[in-house]
């Protein structure tokens, strides 16, 4: 009897449309994540953004959500704030416009408040991202791993970001769509997706690098995989367009403020509490951060240990891209992972929000999904959910003075 019921359940599962299965997984994962967030909201003391024990929407709109709220209701400042030392202070130009302006449009149409609509946009975009992710993984993974990769996507340690007032969820939808189009060789269709994605979260330059490498690889392999002139021209055009879009927001910040370096100066304001006021020097931030973080462990400031550990991690990550398991993802997704990682090394200062900045490396979840053992999969989900609790505790929940922003 039990075997017969199991057979019926399997048959019913196979007959269920793929999108229903994905949305069911996404909905179940949102229940788990919502319970985690509500538990922390109930214990949340009064802080700079909310009173004690805030409701879900208020709790989900803290941190950068407040900057998006400012942009949605007041736009961007024409005069940049200046610190006592004369440097540019933190301001709204660090945050790109697509997400807050979309929420603002919905506020106008519905009359609902920012926090409710911001969370709704994020949840909806997260569902869309899960659907497109399933289609993308179907192109590169064996059938047995596709649905489990979706499970991991939905329960990943940073998956609470899919239901808070942050732009990551919307950007993830756009990025998964762009990569899916890239793998399918639908280059022209990438143009509008890249344009919107580049004004949602910083990604244009990373996509430009990935597309440039993609063109080189396809040209080198043209005898095995034909690379018609039309496709070559389209792919090259999208690469150039992505590079232009990578500089679009800094250019708009310049036009809006009259200061050529308004955007980069604004971004540097967030690293000043760690290493002081700095100029933007590509690839300098990670060695600086390595020294700073290991200095907190008691090592002397001139100790090379931090930089050596950084170099080891970078070398291991690069080597991992050529392992058989990662190669299962295909060359295009590996190019993206490597390009985005290089972009992070070039421009970002690693601190607690770096976990969130690693979200675009999501194709690697396909590698984690490959083993078929049920016990492995149960353990992987349990570890991921534990990671959610850890991230919310370390980065989202505010417990007194908090220097670990999400």
UniProtKB/TrEMBL annotation:
Q: Which domain of life is it from?
A: Bacteria
Q: Which GO terms describe its cellular component?
A: mannosyltransferase complex; membrane
Record's keyword annotation contains Membrane: yes
Keywords of this protein's UniProt record, alphabetized? Endoplasmic reticulum, Glycosyltransferase, GPI-anchor biosynthesis, Membrane, Transferase, Transmembrane, Transmembrane helix
Entry-linked InterPro entries: PIG-V/Gpi18 (IPR007315)
Provide the transmembrane region boundaries. Answer: 20-43, 105-133, 145-167, 187-220, 232-255, 305-326, 333-349, 378-398
UniProt protein name: Mannosyltransferase PIG-V
Species of provenance:
Diaminobutyricimonas aerilata
């Amino acid at each position: 009897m039990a075997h017969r019921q199991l057979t019926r359940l399997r048959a019913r599962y196979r007959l269920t449309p793929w999108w229903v299965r994905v949305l069911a997984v996404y909905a179940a994962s949102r229940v788990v994540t919502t319970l985690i967030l509500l538990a922390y909201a109930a214990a949340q003391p009064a802080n700079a953004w909310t009173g004690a024990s805030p409701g879900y929407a208020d709790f989900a709109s803290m941190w950068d959500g407040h900057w998006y709220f400012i942009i949605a209701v007041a736009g961007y400042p024409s005069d940049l704030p200046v610190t006592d030392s004369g440097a540019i202070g933190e301001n709204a130009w660090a945050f790109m416009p697509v997400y807050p302006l979309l929420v603002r449009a919905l506020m106008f149409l519905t009359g609902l408040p920012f926090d409710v609509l911001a969370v709704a946009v994020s949840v909806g975009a997260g569902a869309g991202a899960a659907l497109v992710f399933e289609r993308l993984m179907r192109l590169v993974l064996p059938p047995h791993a596709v649905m489990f990769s979706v499970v991991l996507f939905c329960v990943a340690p940073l998956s609470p970001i899919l239901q808070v007032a942050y732009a990551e969820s919307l950007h993830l939808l756009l990025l998964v769509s762009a990569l899916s189009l890239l793998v399918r060789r639908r280059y022209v269709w990438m143009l509008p997706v890249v344009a919107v994605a580049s004004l949602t979260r910083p990604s244009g330059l990373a996509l430009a690098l990935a597309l440039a490498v993609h063109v080189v690889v396809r040209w080198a392999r043209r005898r095995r995989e034909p690379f018609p002139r039309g496709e070559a021209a389209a792919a090259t055009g999208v690469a150039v367009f992505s590079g232009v879009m990578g500089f679009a927001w800094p250019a708009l910040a310049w036009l809006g403020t009259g200061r050529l370096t308004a955007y980069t100066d604004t971004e540097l304001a967030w690293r000043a509490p760690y290493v002081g006021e700095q100029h933007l020097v590509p690839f300098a931030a990670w060695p600086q951060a390595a020294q700073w973080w290991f200095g907190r462990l008691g090592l002397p400031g001139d100790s090379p240990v931090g930089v050596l550990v950084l170099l080891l991690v970078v070398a291991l990550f690069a080597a991992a891209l050529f392992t058989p398991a990662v190669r299962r993802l295909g060359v295009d997704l590996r190019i993206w992972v490597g390009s985005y990682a290089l972009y992070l090394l070039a421009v970002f200062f690693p601190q607690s929000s770096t976990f969130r900045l690693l979200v675009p490396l999501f194709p690697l979840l396909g590698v984690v999904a490959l083993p078929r053992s049920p016990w492995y999969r149960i353990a992987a989900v349990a570890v991921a959910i534990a990671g959610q609790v850890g991230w919310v505790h370390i980065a989202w929940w505010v417990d007194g003075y908090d220097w670990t922003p999400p």
